[in-house]
Amino acid sequence: MIRIAETKHAVVNEPLLSPFGFKGAYLTELWQSVTRLESEDGAFGIGVGVQSVLWSDPRVFVRYGETAGNELMAGLTRCALARMRQSGFETPFDLLDALLPEVYAYGQSSTGLADLRSTFALNALVTVDHAAWGLYSRGRGSRFEELVPEAYRTALAEKQTRLASIPLIPYGMDEAGIVRMLDDGYFLLKIKIGADPDQDGDPEKMLAWDCRRLEQVHAIASRYGTEHTDSGHIAYYLDANGRYDTKERLVRLLEHADRIGALERIVLFEEPFPEDVKIDVHDIPVRLAADESVHDERDARERIDLGYGALALKPVAKTMSMSLKVAKLAGELGVPCFCADLTANPLLADWNKNLAARLAPLPGLKVGIIETNGHQNYRNWEQMKQWHPRAGAEWIEAENGLYRLGDSFYETAGGALEISRSYESLFR
After folding, report:
1. Residue 339 in contact with residue 372, Cβ under 8 Å?
2. What are 318-339's pLDDT values in tens digits?
3. Distance CA 248, CA 89 (A)
4. Distance between CA 273 and CA 246 in Å, rounded?
């Protein structure tokens, strides 16, 4: 058993290049949460996380605002660390199982939301889970697959040498930005839909905006081709973040996509409905993916039974431990998975790559994928890359839309569990 002697926590506020819009609202900064765990034998691990209150529970963001909402989430992390002192764990899975109920209960009390979304607590625990994996790796090897228990390895059978980077097209990106993205070689575009153009919550205005946005992107992307999809066309990944209220409204959007020739390009449509809306979607003509609605294996099974054909795994938002549990279930049921982002910093993005690199490509694609948009959104991205313990490694940045993963990536787990001296300096 690993017994914890000391825990520490710090926060780095990272400003964004411009307001980042989704779920009908906007962020201006993202707090980087950093945890240091030291065991009784003097070994230690450092973990990072990115707090996204708006993504994890928009009600907290609306009720308390950006800064106070971030303070509340940081409070959940500190609650977890206080619970860990002078205690121990066998594996990071055991630690998450022990911490999550208590941290969630604390979050219910501190936010005043009895039905707080579980993702709020999981998001707060990412930094703790990452640090626990780092500490767990000491003396056990540096290869990710050596650390994952045998029962979970069947879901991680691939070893991709290339991963397609999925960039984000947020509400505010103009045509020139979309063109630059395609010129840079990106071939799977994540398009944020579900905007609230007049900030009045009108679902018909949202649908009209989404239809126009899809037309705009499709008109531009139709001028490009790619060798990385089965069709040879640029592919689309729509993300509604639970903004569609009815199946009928979703069908109207897809009918419009069909009319303009875009329907066959949609390889993923993520989270169309709020998580409490449980509708059978077997008859929807595109592959629906579940993300925020999947907090654990039970939720994953429920969405699969409803007809969802893919699951978004988010070690950067819901912990690696929980993501591996969901990946194991999905693998047993034959449901494809992919790794989504939360505007992760460079080190956390490489932690995500360790899982993404071991998943099979989605149907319709010829290579594995991972969503990464930190380089698009952080003002200090170049400086943030220097905080990576393997700064300058060839796998950190995409070239022509692809991350190249060689032996050095696999031998070192992308440096994701190594000690970053820059993050360590926060605790001196």
Report:
1. no
2. 999 999 999 999 999 999 999 9
3. 48
4. 7
